[in-house]
Specification:
585 residues, alpha/beta, Alpha-Beta Plaits, TIM Barrel, eight-stranded mixed β-barrel, five-stranded mixed β-sheet, 16 strands, 54% helix, rod-shaped
Length: 585
């Protein structure tokens, strides 16, 4: 008998009917499964299996293992569908014994047993193949998941880096700085930990950016960022945006630690940088904050650093400034007053008090100075030195000055007696520079009916002594129609008496700081200085009024020096117009 595992020429000769059965088998199973071979190749493969079946049928004793193997070989040949197995069993039962010439009951019995073994082998092979494929899929899934997780970690790391670092300089950005700063104020922090911050802004960077282009400005930022990162490598250095950087000093021990960092930053920034043939130099301004972490929040420290940076800028740039809570509170209060001022003007919360200007020779009332007050709903009555500076900074002084002038002139018209005093009103530089200034003053005089000679306008000498002709021209137009002009707080500015010859002024008001020392037990230089000022002013045809006269000794000395008029608490405190005018003889 032929060995079931071998198919040779002798087997082919022994079973010639196999050559007829194999094509029929191939035709029966065609299309039931995807088989990666041609029809001819499939027929050749099934011929081999047919010869092995024939050999198993004739083997004594019957070798059922061949049936198992043939079932497994069918699966190996990719004939794996249930339909393919069914057609195989069907065609084998119907044709194999006939084509092989084995039409006996014994052969039929043997064939049935072989088909059972074939089906069993087929099923086991399918199961094993399925398990192998499942294991392959599982392993592939594990590998894919591992690769995906590694790729995700790499992607997340890359994304986090991009999200937390500045694309231009490579420094940590605002997001990472904010995260680190917030971490310092978490609940896990000990109560004694301190935090320090340097908020840096480049001085003169905009000029470089505008004149040489943004590409040069970007290279400059990269160079400075590199220096800051190298010189202050032990602390977090971040770019906040534009030309702003920040240094976070975690767990500082004292203010000196932060000052050393600020000095190192200023030195790094100040070094010239050569870019594209240009040697560029900038400086830096730095706001410094250092405080305990407990009892504060990230927003508080950032606000403090931002404010302090502006202090450094205002102080001249190229330096650092240290946060001062008292100064901050004062500025907050100034801002609150600035915000409340427009509504206060609308409500009429500003009003005037009047202080007499008295002739030192005989005590006659020459005029009264109108002094503005603010009746604040929460803070009470505020003097002008609290809010006038704020009004000048915001530009509201023009509107306020117009209101004050109107009120003062309206009040002065009521003083109709013979020799009625003039009213003196202070001017700010922004008022005089306003294009409508002359028209505003003349308009008020026309509406109120006050003679121009009974209005005196006071302006500080630092404003009128400027080389800008605009204020002088405006004042000269008013002087030409008879309005009196006086220089206020004289002696505290330039004191250029020779320049006074060309100015449209009628008088000087000497600052009270010169009057304070008059009549003192110990001799001072105030009296000879005053005597000189009075003499020179009289030579120029100007009258002189001394401010801040508080006692009789001061009044006597001023009278002896030849001063024309005095103003101060000795002659009368600021008050209602009726009280001030009651001092007239």
């Amino acid at each position: 008998m032929t060995h079931p595992a071998r198919v040779d020429k002798r087997s082919r000769k022994a079973w010639p009917g196999a050559a007829t059965f194999a094509p029929a088998w191939a035709k029966a199973v065609a299309g039931t499964s995807y088989v990666p071979m041609t029809q001819a190749e499939l027929e050749q493969r099934l011929l081999e299996l047919t010869l092995r079946l024939a050999g198993a049928l004739g083997h004594e004793p019957i070798n059922l293992w061949t049936g198992y193997e043939i079932g497994a070989d069918l699966v190996a040949a990719h004939l794996t569908s249930a339909e393919g197995l069914g057609r195989t069993v069907e065609v084998v039962e119907l044709r194999l014994l006939r084509d092989l010439g084995l039409l006996t009951e014994e052969a039929r019995d043997r064939l049935a047993r072989l088909l059972g073994a074939l089906a069993t082998g087929y099923a086991r092979a399918i199961r094993d193949r399925t398990l192998d494929e499942q294991e392959t899929i599982r392993r592939a899934a594990l590998v894919a998941r591992d690769q995906a997780e590694r790729a995700l970690r790499v992607s997340e790391a890359r994304f986090r880096y991009q999200a937390t670092h500045d694309p231009l300089t490579g420094l940590p950005n605002r997001a990472l700085f904010t995260e680190r700063l917030a971490g310092m104020f978490s609940d896990q922090l000990g109560g004694g930990q301190r935090v320090g911050l340097c908020f840096i802004d480049l001085d003169g960077f905009k000029a470089i950016n505008d004149s040489l282009g943004h590409h040069i400005g970007d290279q400059l930022l990269v160079a400075i960022a590199g220096r800051l990162g190298d010189r202050i490598c032990s602390h977090l250095v971040a770019r906040m945006g534009g030309d702003e950087f920040v240094v976070l000093v975690e767990d500082s021990s004292c203010v000196d630690d932060i000052i050393k960092v600020a000095d190192a930053a200023l030195a790094a920034i100040a070094e010239p940088v050569r870019i594209a043939g240009h040697e560029l130099s900038v400086s830096g301004s730095i706001g410094i904050v250092e405080r305990p972490a407990a009892g504060t929040e990230p927003n508080d420290i950032m606000r403090a650093a931002d404010i302090t940076l502006h202090w450094a800028k205002a102080a001249g740039k190229g330096r650092w400034a240290l946060y001062d809570q008292d100064r901050d509170e004062q500025e907050v209060a100034r801002y609150a007053l600035s915000a409340a001022m427009p509504a206060a003007l609308e409500r009429g919360d500003f009003y005037l008090e009047y202080q007499p200007l008295v002739a030192l020779r005989d005590g006659a009332l020459l005029g009264v100075e109108a002094l503005v007050r603010w009746r604040h709903p929460e803070l009470g009555v505020l003097p002008p030195d609290v809010f006038v500076g704020i009004a000048e900074e915001t530009g509201l002084i023009v509107r306020m000055g117009r209101t004050i002038l109107e009120a003062a002139c309206t009040e002065a018209v009521r003083w109709t007696a013979a020799g009625a005093p003039y009213v003196s009103v202070n001017l700010a530089v922004r008022q005089v520079r306003d294009p409508r200034f002359v028209a505003d003053v003349t308009g008020v005089l026309e509406r109120t009916g006050l003679p121009p000679s009974r209005l005196q306008l006071e302006i500080t000498e630092s404003a009128i002594m400027s080389r800008d002709d605009e204020p002088v021209c405006a004042l000269r137009q008013l002087a030409d129609i008879g309005v009196r002009m006086a220089i206020d707080d004289f002696g505290t500015g330039y004191s250029n008496l020779s320049y006074l010859r060309t100015l449209p002024v009628h008088g000087l008001k000497i600052d009270g700081s010169f009057v304070h020392g008059l009549g003192a037990d110990e001799p001072t230089t105030d009296e000879p200085i005053l005597a000189t000022l009075v003499s020179l002013a009289h030579t120029l045809g100007l009258t002189v009024t001394a401010e801040g006269v508080e006692n009789a000794r001061q009044a006597d000395r001023l009278r002896t020096i030849g001063c024309d008029a005095g103003q101060g608490w000795y002659f009368g405190a600021p008050g209602p117009a009726a009280l001030a005018c009651a001092l007239r003889p």
